[in-house]
Design goal:
Layout (H helix, E strand, L loop, with lengths): L14 H9 L10 H4 L2 H17 L3 H18 L3 H5 L3 H15 L3 H26 L3 H11 L10 H31 L9 H32 L27 H20 L1
Length: 276
């Protein structure tokens, strides 16, 4: 979600800001790159391997290798740089806070803070590559497939996959709701980006209440839509399940190329974690 003011342009005011914000509201970026064509399960597996490797590296050389892997993935994905690096303002602020707080301990603290901050940013940006190159349907099917063995233990796999998919889907919904309500408030003369912090907080309070109302309304509509599509057959057991024998339009299929990419990616992440 993007909620920082962009520079005013002549004759457009804040219009360019909300247009840019709405253009980023939908996470998926259509494309035909190698990353787009990879099986979503492979991309999730690579992200997990990258996360583990990133958390285990202890030297700047290892972190440099992980940064190189991210750069390669970004170049191959052909995703717009503005989409990848222009999201996640809240985490950028958090990273800055981590670096600043560690810097209070002296030069060693600055080094630790920069190392931790770089690690956090790389993990964030790599997760964006997954979200921007995969549709919510692909992620939902991939999660249901990966968690499939847990069905034998009584875990509601389809429920978990659906919940995670809906959580990803509601990220752009929240962003779009903020854009619509803030635009409406500005058209009524509200000054959302003027004055001190307290004045701005009070002005934005007039935005948050309608946004929450709209989100609850959309959540209710979503529940009705799920019920109309026969979700909720396991209501007597107190959980959500799919109908028996439910089929998928485009079931995920792994190819030899997918397996090779997964093996090479996991090997490089393991190499960085063990040796560096």
């Amino acid at each position: 979600m993007l909620l920082w003011p962009l520079p005013r342009s002549a004759g457009s005011g804040h219009l360019s800001y909300w247009v840019a914000m709405d253009s980023m509201a939908s996470l998926y970026v259509p494309g035909a790159s190698v990353v787009h064509r990879l099986d979503a399960r492979v991309k999730i597996g690579l992200l997990l391997a990258y996360s583990v490797g990133l958390l285990l590296v202890r030297t700047w050389a290892g972190l440099g290798l992980m940064a190189t892997l991210f750069a390669v993935a970004l170049a191959v994905s052909r995703l717009p740089l503005r989409r990848v690096f222009g999201m996640g303002l809240a985490l950028y602020v958090l990273v800055g806070s981590v670096v600043a707080l560690n810097g209070l301990r002296g030069p060693e603290g600055w080094a630790v803070g920069c190392f931790t901050g770089t690690r956090m940013l790389l993990l964030l940006w790599m997760s964006y590559i997954l979200c921007l190159s995969s549709t919510s349907t692909q992620l939902n099917d991939a999660l249901a497939s990966l968690l499939g063995p847990l069905r034998r233990l009584g875990v509601p796999v389809d429920d978990v996959a659906l919940a995670l998919s809906l959580a990803l889907r509601f990220i752009p919904e929240v962003s779009r709701a903020f854009a619509e309500v803030a635009t409406a408030q500005r058209s009524r003369g509200a000054h959302l980006d003027e004055g001190g912090a307290i004045v701005r907080a009070r002005a934005w309070a007039a935005v948050f209440a309608p946004v929450m109302t709209a989100l609850f309304r959309r959540a209710t509509d979503l529940g009705v839509a799920l019920e109309a599509r026969c979700y909720g057959l396991g209501e007597a057991q107190g959980r959500l399940v799919e109908a028996p024998g439910r089929t998928r339009l485009d079931p995920p299929r792994m190819t030899a190329r997918d397996g090779a990419v997964l093996a090479v990616g996991c090997a490089l992440c393991a190499l960085a974690a063990v040796l560096l």
